[in-house]
Task: structure prediction
Amino acid sequence: MRIGCIGTGTIGSMLIEALSSKLPEPPDFVACNRSRDKIAVLARRVPSLVMVATAAEVAQRSQTLFICVKSPDLDPVIDQIRPFLSPDHVLLITASGFEVERLEHRVPARVGKIIPSITQLAGGGAILTQYGPRMDRESCRSVDGLLSFIGTPLPVTDDQIRVYADLTSCGPAFFAAILQAFARAASATGRIGAGDAEHLLQLTWNATARLFENGITPEDVRRRVSVPGGVTEAGLAVLDPGADTLFRDLFAATQAHHLSHRPSPGQTRDKWPDTDRPGTSRGPL
Result:
């Protein structure tokens, strides 16, 4: 199997490293990036990665392509690779704000969107998926099968994708920020260093995650730890209302950013006329 990747920043490099380490037979990767130095570092970690100079070369040398660039950069990339695409190509974009069906109007390929997470480096976590009309059942199964080696594919709709991505893709960073703030507050008491506090919290978080894996729910944890009139109950009385406000503000901020960076219908260029659109024959990935 040969997989193409256009853009090897945070998301692209994570997908390449996760797939190369988790698949029974690591695939060959063909990739390009604006910074040759960055992709060279990645190539040293992933021996099966072949570096090429342009996005067009990636499209010519692979049929399944991860396009891991931000929404504003997607149009120029599509312009570069469109002459080399066929109905047998599968394009998987990671830009959450770009609509799959809109992109299908510009290329003859099958198109899907995936929103991965850093948790895929550990071989777990959700991978949000959204497939365009040209993706038939076999194509969807093929992509889901590939992704299932590094996480759990989860289909979402346009109106779900922002909130779901906050929980799955952004979630690890939010959890990490909460852990760091917790550690800083502990250090501010003057009774423990920030490094020691963060280490204790990591140990506690890892063990709590194992409880969840064994079927214990967050509500179970609260009930078992917090006793009436106890210290934990006093802490939760402060945390609960503050956390509700914090996360309402967080979702409002991410939604506002999502909408402000989403391409408007007028930004979609060079649509295929319905009468001239290439055929939709499909083959295996």
About this structure: Residues 231-260 form the longest helix (30 residues).
